[in-house]
UniProtKB/TrEMBL annotation:
Residues 71-370 form the Enoyl reductase (ER) domain. Residues 31-45 have a biased composition (Basic and acidic residues). This is NADP-dependent oxidoreductase. Residues 29-55 are annotated as: Disordered. SMART domains: PKS_ER (SM00829). SUPFAM superfamilies: GroES-like (SSF50129), NAD(P)-binding Rossmann-fold domains (SSF51735). InterPro entries: ADH-like_N (IPR013154), Chloroplast_QOR (IPR052733), ER (IPR020843), GroES-like_sf (IPR011032), NAD(P)-bd_dom_sf (IPR036291). Gene3D superfamilies: Medium-chain alcohol dehydrogenases, catalytic domain, NAD(P)-binding Rossmann-like Domain. Residues 46-55 have a biased composition (Polar residues). One of its GO terms (molecular function) is oxidoreductase activity. Pfam families: ADH_N, ADH_zinc_N_2.
């Protein structure tokens, strides 16, 4: 990361292709490592030493939202499946909360199967929080009962279940100032915002940053993190969210519904962060709002890097990767009260298919948390 990294990056699940490793190379290695436990419904596996050591029998069951092929929301079913068993370097987590994200719908529909193929049956939701329930061999950092959170890879079966497997090295302690379940809705969007701003955008104190889509879940954290970095923050939002974005610390908020909002943006900017599902032609037009040598980073649409070079600026599409150091720093800022979190809706496992349908129809707003134990 740039000036705000606070530590080294976890390289084991890097998705960003700027390192010269194609996603297919990374995924082939990951799938080979995980093939012994990906098929969580295989109850024919012999009893493992891990199960005997931790008191988790192989025939234990759990409830999970599952789909067995790519397709629409109707593919998702709530089933009783075999509880997974942690392998070497892994932990079993009793899931308290798991964030729902648009990427979950893209994965389910098969739109990302070329770069991030899934092994079926598959459990959605790649971010989660919970309690360490069992330890695989070689795990020394965590103890049973530890409260942790993480964001997993796009090929991992995830958190829409009562239990989930994660690598011990990819976990961080949850912020102690918020509800354990709510912490499950933090990692993906907070990490994405951090990496857009600092790791790829190299944001520094006093620079001017434009955040497009500030009222969304990634933009919500991007505005706050920019203020923590003492940048001058210009953000865009729809009219109903302008005041809320000011409340996050933005210096200026532009009405995104106005066709000429870019003319009011007081360019140029050192950094532009696209946290909106804007079309590529829109995103590429914003390259002209950058100062020479400035950077546009996008969490959604690709950027025309050839056009960026012609304009003597930088542009890139960024995939989030996990970083325990960044999650630890995020937790500390939440505990200190300088970084706010937000959960707009809670749902049980039985509502996962409905959430996918609402998202596909463009009728889902805000951050939704899945609570596997059910709602009170």
């Amino acid at each position: 990361m740039a000036s705000c990294a606070g530590g080294s990056l976890n390289k084991s699940i890097r998705f960003v292709d700027c390192m010269g490793l194609g996603p297919d190379v990374i995924l082939n290695r990951q799938q080979a490592e995980r093939s012994s436990r990906t098929d969580f419904t295989d109850e024919s596996r012999p009893n493992s030493m891990v199960a005997r050591q931790t008191g988790v029998p192989n025939d234990s069951q759990m409830k999970a939202a599952v789909y067995r092929q790519y397709g629409g929301p109707e593919q998702i079913r709530v089933e009783r499946v075999a509880r997974p068993i942690p392998g070497e370097g892994e932990v079993l987590i009793r899931v308290a909360g798991s964030g729902f994200n648009v990427v979950d719908t893209l994965l389910r529909a098969g739109h990302m199967s070329g770069s991030f193929p899934q092994t079926f049956p598959f459990i959605p939701n790649i971010e989660l929080s919970g309690t360490v329930e069992a330890l695989g061999t070689g795990v020394t950092k965590w103890q049973l009962g530890a409260q942790v959170y993480t964001s997993m890879t796009l090929t991992d079966s995830g958190g829409a279940a009562e239990f989930a497997i994660a690598r011990a090295e990819e976990l961080a302690a949850v912020p102690r100032s918020i509800d354990l379940a709510d912490a499950g809705g933090v990692p993906l969007c907070a990490l994405t915002a951090w990496q857009l701003l600092f790791e790829h955008g190299s944001l520094e104190r006093g620079q001017r940053v434009l955040i497009v889509g500030a009222s969304g879940s990634v933009g919500y954290y991007a505005v706050q993190l920019s203020r923590i970095a003492d940048a001058y923050v210009v953000a865009t939002a729809s009219p109903s969210f302008v005041e809320a974005v000011y409340g996050l610390g933005a210096d200026e908020v532009l009405d995104y519904s106005k066709p000429n909002w870019t003319a009011e943006s007081k360019a140029p900017f050192d950094l532009i962060v696209n946290a909106s599902p804007a079309q590529p032609e829109q995103v590429n037009s914003w390259l002209r709002l950058l100062r020479q040598g400035g950077t546009l980073v996008s969490a959604w649409s690709p950027v025309d890097e050839a056009e960026a070079r012609r304009l003597h600026v930088n542009g890139k599409l960024v995939y989030m990767h996990n970083s325990t150091q960044q999650l630890t720093d995020i937790a500390r800022w939440i505990e200190d009260g300088v970084l706010r979190t937000k959960i707009d809706e809670r749902a049980g496992l039985e509502q996962v298919a409905e959430l996918h349908a609402r998202s596909d129809a463009g009728k889902l707003r805000g951050k939704v948390l899945i609570v596997p134990a059910g709602l009170d």
